[in-house]
Amino acid sequence: MAIVMALPAPIAASPAAGPQVSGVPVDAPECRLCADAFGEKAETPLRIEIRSGLTFGRMALVSEADGRAAIKPENGGMRQEEGLVDLGGMVFTGEVIITGEPHKPVRVDLPSEVRLRAPGGAEARLTEFTTDLPPVPRLGADGVLKFQFGATMTTTRGRGGDFRGRIPISVSYF
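The line above is the sequence of DUF4402 domain-containing protein; the predicted structure tokens follow.
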């Protein structure tokens, strides 16, 4: 018997929470993340906007083993690697916009693992995060850097569900 699961957008920030850098409100006094690696204070604090989270669409488990699917930021496509069959639906890479000091290099950190949970108690995890960022990301002349990210989702013990979670993304001047 196949279990259908929809995997909507795990996101890093809620628009209602306001702009944050590594969980610290941008408006907070004494922005500790507004300095570069040499301790020089940047004129413009960094801001992160999450345009879209990861969405894996709809899949069915075809066995009681773990299932794996991956979204790659290079082409936005998804592939099922083990135990899952694609049932269609929209698939989206995560999209992030960073604004700050023009031409400044930045460091972007994604987690090594994120736990996702479904209302019925099932769990999945996101690992192997990838981005389309260059080796040393740099804000453009307009102070903006856009990038996409993907990850591998693994279901556990053949349990499906409507999985959700948050992906913490931190950004600092390099």
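Note on the example: The two ends are 50 Å apart (CA to CA). Residues 103 and 167 are 26 Å apart (CA to CA).
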